[in-house]
Amino acid sequence: MLFNQLGLTAELLRAVDEQGYQEATPVQQQAIPLILEGHDVLAGAQTGTGKTAGFALPLLQRLQHGTVNRRRIRALVLTPTRELAAQVGESVRDYGSHLPFRTAVIYGGVSINTQIAKIRKGVDVVVATPGRLLDHLQQGTIELGAVELLVLDEADRMLDMGFIRDIRKIMKALPDKRQNLLFSATFSSEIRRLASDLLNSPTEIQVAVNGKPADGVNQIVYPVDRQRKRELLSHKIGAENWRQVLVFTRTKHGANRLATQLDSDGLKSSAIHGNKSQAARLRALKDFKTGKVRVLVATDLAARGLDIERLPHVVNYELPHVAEDYVHRIGRTARAGHEGHAISLVCVDEHKLLADIEKLLQTKISKEVIPGYEPDPRIRAEPISKGRAQRPSGKSNSGRKKRHSNSSRNNGSGQRQKRYANRSA
Fold first, then answer.
1. Residues 6+ apart with CB under 8 A from 48
2. What does DSSP say about strands 269-272 and 217-223: parallel, antiparallel, or unpaired?
3. Residue 330 within a domain
4. Which residue, 329, 361, 393, sits at the end of a domain?
5. What are phi and psi of 345, to 5 degrees?
6. Taking a C-beta distance cutoff of 8 angstroms, is the pair 231, 375 a contact?
7. Do 305 and 196 reside in the same domain of the chain?
8. CA distances from residue 365 to 28, 222, 270, 359, 362 in whole angstroms, order as listed
9. How confident is the model at residue 257 (pLDDT cuts 50, 70, 90)?
């Protein structure tokens, strides 16, 4: 189905055409007409399925044809991470480039004063992380009484990160009469409960099977000893001339270490994770997109929401503790119908994690032993630590707690992230 068959206005179709889109994805085909008709929607959609356009386009059209209430916040989009908030905000601006609406993106890790100044000038759409939005509400620097549409994007990850209480607090600041849209990769019992509280007689759509990667992802496992993973990764990148590679590690320290090692191998690399400043994260992502950096090493939390057009290679340098995170990781490639490669370097310690992933996928992933990198059968499995939140050397736990309590709002998630960080920092 083409976008011009979905009932969108000329201004939106022009913007869509400028983005190079013609055919709508399944989630867009189902969600756009329902949202335009004013329905609350509960949508099951994985990353890479085009869900942002699925809610952003009809959201803008609803504002276009709704009550004239210029320069008051009429639409609110909540996302779990800074990167996803920035990406959604950019998409809303692109799709609304021929409409007179202003968009503000609000998240932690950057100056709140700059955000306050922008809000005071008047905005129509706000894309925010829950923690920083609560900052503004508590300081009285934002008013949500005119919100007509509320979107919860990647709601399952927001619950994983402990944002449920913040979301409920934010809902109290919204008018009772509004349209609600909830997008989630999975429909857990917690998501169902949230939907029952948030949505009014919603229409449910499911465009991706839970636990299934997007079409076009070619998956392969390379068995290798834990101490030879870096060597094998450098070999594959160099020998096969991979030009743009997103690599996942389990920890922030591991991301830093691997990026440094790959740099020493002659592969220009950067790390991106929660301990990096927002400016550093944005700079690393920009360098990666433009080709200045060949390898971007990321943790799960930092990589949530990264949208890199036609990213060819995703590497699981370490398998995640949670099988569902594997699907989210490899969803960074093969986006919008393109093909991509998902490579996993698996040592003997990770056989149980691999089995959990294959159980979720309900299929076996192809395995290939690279000559010269055959696993040593004498090596025994070692326990994989689920880790603790990284803390600077010489700092006590009590010092960390105090620092978190003082800055939990400023970093956009604070203590709420700690529970998730312990699992996949």
1. 214, 331, 332, 333, 334, 335, 336
2. unpaired
3. yes
4. 361
5. -95, 110
6. no
7. no
8. 30, 10, 29, 10, 10
9. very high
Strands 75-78, 340-346: parallel, antiparallel or unpaired by DSSP? unpaired
Domain that holds residue 279: 217-361
User: Are 43 and 181 within one domain?
Assistant: yes
Pairing of strands 313-316, 103-106: unpaired
Q: Could you tell me if 244 and 350 lie in one domain?
A: yes
Tokens found for residue 35: 């949202």
Residue 146 scores a pLDDT above 80 = yes
Give the pLDDT confidence score for residue 282 in this predicted structure. 82
For residue 398, tell me if it sits in a domain. no
What are 20-53's pLDDT values in tens digits? 888 898 999 999 999 999 999 999 887 667 899 9
- Paired with 272 in beta bridges are 298
Asked if residue 379 is part of any domain, the answer here is: no
Mean pLDDT confidence for 218-227: 97
What is the reported pTM?
A: 0.67
Pair 38, 134 in one domain: yes
Contact 15, 98 (CB under 8 A): yes
Average pLDDT in the chain: 86
The answer to whether the beta carbons of residues 248 and 301 sit under 8 Å apart is: no
Rg of the Cα trace of the chain?
22
pLDDT in tens, 157-213: 898 888 999 999 999 999 999 999 999 887 888 888 899 999 999 999 987 555 667
Gap between the Cα atoms of 409 and 132, Å rounded: 6
3-state secondary structure of 36: helix
CA nearest 227: which of 382, 69, 340, 336?
Answer: 382
Together in a domain, 51 and 145: yes
The answer to whether the CB of 297 falls within 8 A of the CB of 237 is no
Taking the C-alpha atoms of residue 423 and residue 320, their distance in angstroms, rounded to an integer, is 9
Q: Let me know whether 268 and 318 are in one domain.
A: yes
Number of domains in the chain: 2
Nearest to 242 by CA among 303, 159, 311: 311
Polymer length of the chain: 425
User: E strand or H helix at 24, and its extent?
Assistant: none
Same domain, 167 and 285: no
Structure confidence at residue 424 (pLDDT): 32
Kindly state the average pLDDT of the residues 297-317: 81
In a domain, 366, yes or no: no
Amino acid at 389: A
Helix (H) or strand (E) run with residue 44 in it: strand 41-44
